[in-house]
Specification:
Strand content: 15-25%
Radius of gyration: 18 Å
Number of strands: 8
Structural class: alpha/beta
Shape: globular
Distance between the termini: 28 Å
Largest sheet: 8 strands, mixed
Amino acid sequence: MSGQNKARPLVAGRTSPLEGRRMSTGFSTTAPIRWFAATAAIVTCSVASIPQASAADEARRLISAHGHTIEAFVFGQGPETLIMAAGNGRPASQLTDLAKAVASAGIRTVVYNYRGIGASDGPLDGLTLVDYGNDVWAIADALGVQKVHLAGKTYGNRVMRAASQTKPGRVVTIILVGAGGEVQPSPETIALYKRYTDPATPKSEWLSLQAQLMYAPGNEHLAEKDADEGAFPAIATAEVKASEATPKEAWSMGGTAPMLAITCLLDRVAVPPNAYKIAEMRPNTWLAGLPGCGHNMINEQPEELRRLIVGFIQARSSAKK
């Protein structure tokens, strides 16, 4: 690994207690990794204080982009703007509670619906991750902001990596929530995921697969929350095709901005060595591992996720001044 990736103090002059340790994933390396921890000195929100989403709190925007419409929702105000992308075939509402929690720290936070979900429209055939990334820049332009923070949950972090790689000069930080693309899951998981994204899969089976694939043991009941948000397997299938049609070098490194790769240690889809490998290979990258959660950490570890995102944005925004 490059000398730029040597471990060093991370936040507010303090060194993370995890710095220099290996993740307990069975993936070993002798290279130093920079770990990131959001400390209480930076983020003071408790679990009970995370605000719940309501329609009255969001500012809905219909944005014209390349001949189609993007439905976006803007929360809060502040000097920094974060745009977040949801998981594979998932609606913006998947991220609404997290967006509101981040916005409560004074960071304007935007979530949006992918093409084919809600009021967002546009072609789905023949797309690449670069096309989905260009939709992100259409949102930033419509909001009149030149430089933004980007975050993507699972599939969404592929979109955000493509966006960042296309216009690296416009990205302040990039945050990966459940990063993939470097290490394949097990053959069993791959087979289940194909069934999960098959539009012909009955809703009851989809919910069972959601619980099995997206959550750590003991958290499967949280899949009901996903069902309430809506399932869009046809959109998920189109997005997988867009990913497969994109050369890896067009998105995987995610540009040059400071990056935080967050992984859950029980994720069976985007297995933890994915994030570890990204942090090992890519300069200017930090790594955070969360125990007790799987692929859908936004429901399993919402407070820790909020702390990490807010802490990283605040730390890196202060560093650039």
